[in-house]
Design brief:
Distance between the termini: 35 Å
Low-confidence stretches: 38-43, 175-180
Shape: globular
Number of domains: 1
Order of helices and strands: HHEEHHEEHHH
Radius of gyration: 17 Å
């Protein structure tokens, strides 16, 4: 069952990542795993459910967000996300995959350099240490305080980096002021 709080939170997350300058796709198509990777062992017939897909250099950042409190439901959501994320690793990164995930045709060019995926799980309802997410080093976990920092950074980025002088700087430096370079410290795990 989809939690309405998580649905609103996911929409807010999409606007946060977009304000930071990323192409953040949300909501995504939720194809059944057998349509995506019949050769990959999955074990369940639940759809591949992700909240975000963000092209970021050679990685596609795949994310989920929840406001669930610490407990079994949160841990289950994390484990489901991890198992669904693992399905993507064995797939060819091509137009057919982007189409199945619901990437709009005009956005395909932003995914042409993607050769792999990295995951992130935002547990906006807890602080670090309340639950220890382990066993999946390719998935980075954010917590309530991290989420607040991201939201505030997005507000600052939107306010100051959309200033006309920044546009002049971008033209002067041939567009080399990319969101990934600005936010590299936040996504250091994805270099």
């Amino acid at each position: 069952m989809i939690n309405p709080t998580d649905t609103r939170l996911a929409a807010l997350g999409q606007s946060v990542f977009s304000e930071m300058g990323f192409t953040c796709l949300h909501p995504l198509v939720r194809p059944p795993p057998e349509d995506m990777a019949p050769r990959v062992e999955y074990g369940k017939t639940a759809p591949l459910e992700f909240d975000y897909l963000i092209p970021c250099g050679r990685h596609g950042l795949v994310g989920a967000i929840t406001a669930l409190p610490a407990g079994e439901a949160l841990e289950d959501k994390y484990l489901k996300f991890c198992s669904r994320f693992k399905v993507l690793g064995g797939l060819s990164k091509n137009r057919a995959l982007w189409r199945r995930l619901g990437v709009p045709e005009p956005t395909f060019s932003e995914f042409k350099k993607v050769t792999g995926f990295k995951g992130f799980f935002i547990a906006a309802g807890i602080e670090e240490g309340e639950v220890i997410f382990t066993g999946f080093p390719e998935i980075y976990s954010f917590y309530r305080s991290d989420w607040r920092v991201l939201v505030n950074c997005a507000r600052v980025y939107k306010r100051y980096f959309n200033h006309p002088l920044v546009g002049f700087y971008r033209r002067l430096h041939k567009g080399r002021l990319s969101p990934f370079k600005v936010w590299a410290p936040l996504f250091a795990a994805y270099r």
